[in-house]
């Protein structure tokens, strides 16, 4: 929680700088000033001038922490595009079987000198699930812009992780339906299997190779139709020493699977 | 072959998946004296990956799966979906009775059920019912 502009206490400064509860003992203002990670902070106290220039220079002042928040800062954090996926499977056998996968891919790119733009793409990884991007059909294997998060040179994270949660709505129940986080493919780097909440090194802009994360869905039913909607919530966090994790992306992606049992006689 | 992306740490987080079920196995088909289905009484049933109904075994290949014909503890209020006359039928689900498979009945029921599912999803009560069950599951 950001420090206010009145009644600033050493205890509150300690809590914010150290990402903990307000408090501490024998708190040194000089130590807190020198430990503050958000070195780009400027006091929000009206008319306040920091004689030392920013947080770290002497003499140290309580007022320099006016409005201070210990959060990793972004230059830009915005949606680039949106996609959803669908499939209609038909079967003349006893079982109707469906499913497939799509991928998220990220690359470390340069947006402006010194900045790191972590660009996320979405991909229809094969023709099993047909993608729709901003309302238009996707081409298999092509990367479509999904989200971008830009950091300046003072705030480039060390690492990141993807936290995925899936909700399943059975419009017409199935025998089985599942989601798996599998190794991405087709890029320089793969996430490996079971990537949910695994912390990955944020590659520098000098390495623009993509890292792929695969979202895999399966469904089947016996002698009956199914209609299953997977709502996949994707949260992307960035980590940097001295800061709490930054939740930069919190978005949903829909995957709609329909299966038609066309045999009409169970053998 | 793709190179494994460099990792800092591997975290194993057990996830609970919410499931919302609408099924012909537990909706009520309100039929007239001629057996024609004129409306459905629907409830959304909520399950989670940790709280599942008893399993059933498929009739072929012995595949196990949750039996969603069971009622969950977490259900929405019932709502009624009126079926327009052109989508009504007296066909019934085959219920996996292999000795009494009726091709025409099964074709008619499948065709009608696809339309009924659309009616349920498009009904004004559907989203409310999902939210009602979601609130129950989130409170677990």
Task: Describe the structure concisely for a colleague.
Chain A is built from two helices and 14 strands; from the N terminus they run ααββββββββββββββ. By secondary structure, chain A is mainly β.
Please tell me about this protein's structure:
The complex is a heterodimer of chains A (267) and B (140). Chain A has 2 domains: 1-70, no CATH class; 76-261, no CATH class. Chain A has 2 helices and 14 strands. Chain A has helices spanning 10-17, 29-35; strands at 76-79, 83-91, 95-109, 116-123, 130-133, 136-137, 143-151, 159-172, 176-183, 189-190, 199-201, 211-222, 226-239, 246-261. In chain A, strands 1, 3, 4, 7, 9, 10 and 12 form a 7-stranded mixed β-sheet that branches. By secondary structure, chain B is α+β, with helices and mostly antiparallel strands. Chain B has one domain (18-138). In chain B, 25% of the residues lie in helices and 25% in strands. Chain B has 2 helices and 10 strands, in the order ββββββββββαα. In chain B, the strands form 3 sheets. In chain B, strands 3-6-9 form a 3-stranded antiparallel β-sheet, covered by helices on one side. In chain B, strands 4-5-10 form a 3-stranded antiparallel β-sheet, with helices on one face. In chain B, strands 7-8 form a two-stranded antiparallel sheet. At the A-B interface, β8, β9, β10, β11 and β12 of A face β1, β2, β3 and α1 of B.
List the helices and strands and how they pair.
The complex is a heterodimer of chains A (267) and B (140).
Chain A lengths: L9 H8 L11 H7 L40 E4 L3 E9 L3 E15 L6 E8 L6 E4 L2 E2 L5 E9 L7 E14 L3 E8 L5 E2 L8 E3 L9 E12 L3 E14 L6 E16 L6
Parallel strand pairs in A: 2-14, 10-12
Antiparallel strand pairs in A: 1-7, 2-5, 3-4, 3-12, 4-7, 5-6, 8-11, 8-13, 9-12, 13-14
Chain B lengths: L2 E2 L2 E3 L8 E4 L6 E4 L5 E6 L2 E4 L6 E3 L6 E3 L7 E2 L3 E4 L20 H20 L1 H15 L2
Antiparallel strand pairs in B: 3-6, 4-5, 5-10, 6-9, 7-8
